[in-house]
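#onboarding

Welcome to the new folks! Below is a worked example of what a typical request in this channel looks like: someone posts a single protein sequence, and someone else replies with the predicted structure as tokens. Don't worry about understanding the tokens yet, we'll cover that in week two.

Example request:
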Amino acid sequence: MAPGQAVVKSEGGRKRLIIDYRGLPYGPDVAQFSQAMKDVVEKLREVDADEVVLSEYYERIYNEEQTNWLKQVADLLSSLEADAVWSPSHLGKSTASKVLAPRHDAVLKILNMVSSDPFKAYLTLVQELKNQMAALSALEGEDADDLKIYVGTLKFMRQKIEGIDLIQKMKNYLTQLGSIPEGRTAYHTFFESAIKPSFIGSRIFFTGTEGLELVDQYEVLGTKVYVYKHPDRVELLYYINPPEYSLPPEKYFLLEKTKEVVAQHRPDTVEFMDIAQARKYFRKVYVATIADLALKNNIELSVEEKEDLATIVARYTIGYGILEILLSDRRVTDVYIDSPLGVKPVYLVHGKYGQCQTNVIFSNEEARSIVSRFRALSGRPFDEAHPILDFDLEDLQTRIAVIGKPLALDGIAFALRLHKTTPWTLAQFVDNNMFSALNAGMFSFFVDAQASMLIVGSRGAGKTSMLQSLMLELPQNLRILVQEDSVTGGTPIVVEKNGKLMSTTVGILVDGLIEKHGKVLFNGVEKLPSNPEKIKVFSSSPDGELQLADVSCFIRHKTTKELYLVKTESYKEIKVTGDHSLFTFEQGRLKAVKTTSLQCGDDLVVADCQLNSNDGTISLSRRVSLEKIAEITNLGQVNDYVYDFSVPHFENFVCAGILAHNTQELPIPALKRLGYSIQRLKTRPPLGGGTETEVSAEDALRTALRLGDSVLIVGEVRSGEAKALYEAMRVGAVGNVVMGIIHGESAYGIWDRVVNDLGVPTTSFKATDFCLVSAPIRFKGSLKRHRRVIELTEVLKHWDTDPGKEDGFQSWLAFNAEKDALEFFEDQVKENSEWLKKTRQLRGLTYEDIMSEITARGITKQYLVDQKRKFDIPQLLEADYAVRAHNKYLLLSEKQREEIGGVDHKLLLAEWKKWVDDSLIKDLINLKKT
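Example response:
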């Protein structure tokens, strides 16, 4: 917009009058500048609006009440003009100019003041009326009749002006003040506006906090967070006050100018950067730009101020805007933004305070920007043909779900689920009263005894958190691995090493790294699960854009499988195992195809990333292309190393000029740090929007089952994979612990869903050992929800058709709301439990042995909770300390078995507690002191 130009925008059913003040000699402030108030009043005489926004390098937003005050001024002015109060007939009977002229000038002076300073116009009017009333008292006859007409007009104008809300409020305010302040000071009381940088689409409001009770306050990313309780509202209020909303004008100027300067800056290598690299790179650019602009405009800034401003610019350019603050608060579990946007504030679920309304109003402008980023990061479409976007935002540990038209009738809406950065532990659940320590010991024993369990519950019941806590009870010598063979060692590859491009072979690269930095050996697979020399390989996005990507793991292993030589028409060639996948294109997206499924003449995805032998330069392309396969040759069985890389996000790499699939390794960072070797299978999202390169959950599960004796964790049992899962469980193909999540409310409800909805044969359901059900409980009708385990049910095996009718379930635990505890049906379990009998038989344990082990494990969890509370060291219950404590318990148990042929739990617990006191608690207390 040009300076002074105005536009009305509609959003969320509200109309906003926006006036551009850049380049004008006065600022965008109704309270401070009379001309700004006049601009707004004049515009409101022409258009209708619910809010007024004055935009320069920042925006001043005047809410609906303030806008109504100004609209009343505009209507007043129009009304007085329509009545032509300056006309001679309203000024008196006389026709003498020397009589009418002063009156005419006085009325016009007042009218001209109304739009820019209505209260001064009112005071001037009152003074003029007072003067004329005094003059009238001294007149008689025709002179008195003449003046009465003018006095009547002044009274009429006074009545009109006193009828608008702004004048009434100012009169009351000044009466309380006892004096009339100079200049426009009084307007600052009534036109205190919300302020935000002009490049931020969303709005934050701070009004109405006077009558609220402050419940809590803390800081996130330099932003103040306030939690309030409203006397008349069920939900609490979660208000944020980011630093970008309370800066002086010169800093807003620098923010806006910095954004303008760097908007066109995009280095050639930026598409090769991961998110962390991009943020680091652009932050340096922003700091330098801010420093330069500050110097040119004589604005003094400290080093810290430059860094702070760069952080703000980064948040709204390469970051996630205002959402970044909400998603960085790890006390929050969910964030919801409903459509139509711009109407209702964002609301969220707080881990401590439940559902809260925020003071953030998300705009369509911000939504379009953020969805564009999500599309780029996920590589998935989002349009009317694909109205669902579902993926994990890894850098903020958040599950993103976006819906749009035609699915969402009112436009884009968001549901964001924040993952806990460290897994929940059983001890933390005990501390939060989700179940007792004895229950925790029981669940821990089930994991140790290789029970197959379904974690059941509704959304928000804590299913995923419960699954995480049970995973931490696994001995660390068990693994979940997804393995795929790869390319031969002689395959040429272009990589970036410590910032420099070079050409080498896969074998030389991986062998050299493993020899230099060591390896981890598991089931014959040699892995370097880190990247000490910052190796990057060329990788492709789902739509064919090439970029340099970090390698997270280097892999080699011996194979005796058949090798295949694949050649293209331009003589590119690669040697791979038959199970390994190369790529073709289908509907503009990459599609992985196993080598044994390829034929001559098929299209193959290739990329020009090779060393030119003539001049030693490296030729690079920005996009992949297609070439026909000229030859596929079976080279027979080999006994040699094959190699692979794990490349997060896109799961492919370019070698020999051909795009190859890589090992699917998406590690759970926290569990990796704790010593677990865990890889998740990346599967196609259940609600659409996936790409052809993504594997279905059923196929991924069948692949995992080939690994034999491995722990199997199914993130959610929801469709076709259920058949494969139960088929494998029934014939014993898994051979170890099986745990999965499924939506439901009870063991019988899960049987009904698995059999009738997912198509699993009813007798196959008996492969499930236990259903562990959790739910949010509202005690005695309270509005607050508390997560509790409400049911533990064993699935018995001696029934045929309907477990409900044939006594196919044995209840172990059931929730008693009056006691807020799970009741253990010990006598029935001891008599009827088939799983208990099987475990006793296979492990050579008595019932007393089993209960003693369960009790001891429960005591360990309770001891951690008690010590955490005693010394105020919440870290003791976090995963790193809880896992160390559990590992020590297992090691001490094993030591006793070796020394005395069994376990003396009394001695075991005494030794374990001493170790906890000396090793864990002492460290945490010392850390707390420092």
